[in-house]
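Treating backbone geometry as a discrete language has practical consequences that deserve illustration. The amino acid sequence and the backbone structure tokens for this protein are reproduced below.
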Amino acid sequence: MKKAFILISLIVFGSCGDSTEKLPKEIDWDKEKSLQFNKDLALEQEIAISLFLEQHKDWDMVKTGSGLQYVYIKKGTGDYAQVGLIAEVEMAVSLLDGTECYKTEKDEYQEFIIDKSDIETGVQEGIKKMRIGDHVKMIIPSHLAHGLVGDLDKIPPLTIILVDIHLIGLKE
């Protein structure tokens, strides 16, 4: 056992030596390439969302200027969400392929301060259009979700997410 550990250690540490391949001193990236990358990504995600919505023709989505899309599953009658209030929500987050990433437990809820917390920008935008009792599905492009790095856990980089959210209550 000791010999196996020593052998594995030598392999691991031996592979960490100097590489003969040198990194370029300057990266060939500029503002134009960045803009083009963002345009291409936005187009790819728009196509992916359109293809997803082809499978959900009964969803009459509203699209905002930022790219967030949402549909009311059930309309509530309570007060509207406002910046600074604490939203109490039941929420499920999944990828467009149906992979569930996060979900509040049954009979529990998640709280966050509207526009003053680290909840996804797309959720923050969408919650401000809701009132207590609303149940909404949101399609959130990556630039409004977890962006270039994902959430470093269950949501990969540059990934569109689907959020199913029910606003249960608001408090100060």
User: Anything to note?
Assistant: Residues 76 and 133 are 4 Å apart (CA to CA).
